[in-house]
Amino acid sequence: MATPPDDRTGFAPDDDAPIPYMARTREYYAAIGYTTPYRWAHYVEAPFQPLRKPLAQSRITIITTAAPFDPDKGDQGPGAKYNGAAKFYSVYDGDTSKPHDLRISHVAYDRVHTSAEDPGTWFPLPQLRRLAAENRIGEVAPRFFGAPTNRSHRVTIETDAPEILARCQADRVDAAVLVPNCPVCHQTASLVARHLEANGIPTVVMGCAKDIVEHAAVPRFLFSDFPLGNSAGKPHDVASQAFTFELALRVLETAPSAQTTVQSTWRWSADPAWKRDYNNIAALSTEELARRRREFDAEKEIARSLRETAA
Q: Is the pTM of the predicted complex or chain greater than 0.70?
């Protein structure tokens, strides 16, 4: 049901504001029985590295939290349930000159309002290639990089971010576009962006979780008020994806200082009621919360086994 604006004032509905993902996530896990609140990464200042050369001369890479498709790891297709078996635990890279099948079944994107059918919404390599062909950027870096979605701040800061930096430096990357998907993905991307920026590589985060990214204090952030999993634009909407990526590059090029946030003008829907649903315990029964606890515990055990196997 649509939520109309106040007829007398013309104000937007109260729902029409960015989703408070940190609060929702904290309340959700408390409701399913986890009593120790997760501590989100929080900084009040951010490093900032201006572009050292014009965008039209710069070598750009993409950093993603999407996972390479592995047919041996269960359902990873459109609409798949959360699939912890598909997670990856080490930084990976891929040849940007080749096609890649990356999926997001391993993370908590918004499965109510989107179904992960169009990889253009989470992996904008086609847009980067297009802009290189149009001479809007200097060139596409030879590799893109996968950042593990890690709940451990220490592992992201001390292991994953330095590894991504080293690979970017090896490829002589001039700037990086980071594209997260789930709530923790947004934290991961923010911590990686901070590390790259502190070591001389300009960045821009494209994301949908405004509170998480700004809490971590990133250099540049393009906020799209879309369901999680759509940081690079609306599904099956090339115009939206093109606009979103081009706006991200404008933010990269023109941000005057650290902690610059720009909000995209594109809207997911005229009715903002979709924002009520993500991890909203008020909409979940006791039975549903208990079911989700069982499911979460089972997924944790799978992930633990996979981490031990990988080690």
A: yes
